[in-house]
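Loading example: each entry is read as two labelled lines plus one structure line.
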Amino acid sequence: MPNTPALNTHSIGQYLSGYADGEGSFCISFSPRPKLRTLLEVRPSFSVSQNGDRQEVLKLFQQYLDCGTIRKNPSDRTFKYEVRSIKDLIGKVIPHFLKYPLLSSKKKDFEKFAALCRMIYEGKHLKQDTLKEIVTISYQMNGLGARRYKKQTLLNILSEDIVYASSN
Amino acid sequence: MPNTPALNTHSIGQYLSGYADGEGSFCISFSPRPKLRTLLEVRPSFSVSQNGDRQEVLKLFQQYLDCGTIRKNPSDRTFKYEVRSIKDLIGKVIPHFLKYPLLSSKKKDFEKFAALCRMIYEGKHLKQDTLKEIVTISYQMNGLGARRYKKQTLLNILSEDIVYASSN
């Protein structure tokens, strides 16, 4: 890190929010899991990807937010900083972006993400009706790139659960 | 912009440096110009590109740095904030990144860029030997993507100039 008087904790906080506004991603992803009672696994994550030759900022995120992992993407030369723990998302990542807000329209995605993480933290992804709500709100988020499953596919899986539950 | 006590001029400065560390580009590009005395046009620029639906940060750069233009890329949905004026690069952009330094290895590119802009500001791109030096240092910068011309192609053009000059 360069030795500059401007670089205190507050400055790094602003800097990382700026970096994350460009390169960060707030994502709620879903995977069908027939063995789970709810049939869907819900995985919230905050991540920042970067070419391997510029890992410094990822290490700064890890150090500053005091959580998350950095791992290499085996398919290309990029590295990814990622926080998946709901406890860390609720206790460290979300408070950071509330203190140092995003300034672009990505802020709207963050706000949905924060609300969804709170629902997950409260266990609302374990109940069918609130899980449906989580799926619906998640699919209103922009900038998530290609989704592996269509929203209706996931909602159909949850509806199958109703049939299954009522037939037993 | 969100109304937050943390968001003063200093905070925005840090934020924009963080954003630029991820999404910004410092570039010196060259074009053969047979009609120019030096045979090569030299164009320094600082730019940040962004999807059209997230232009806010580009406007913030323009407002904060008090220079540059925003224009639409006709070939896709992106917008680009760009500063080409050497006066603005020397007087506004470079001082900003000296005050709020980049924290990744992109900082090394910025330092080369700043040195080259100073050379251009002093008119050293108008003399053949120092123009060769500008080409050589520019091609030591990373992260510039695909270069339109190979370094040797440009240096050969400058060598042609010697022949031309000596035959007149």
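DSSP finds six helices and four strands in chain B.
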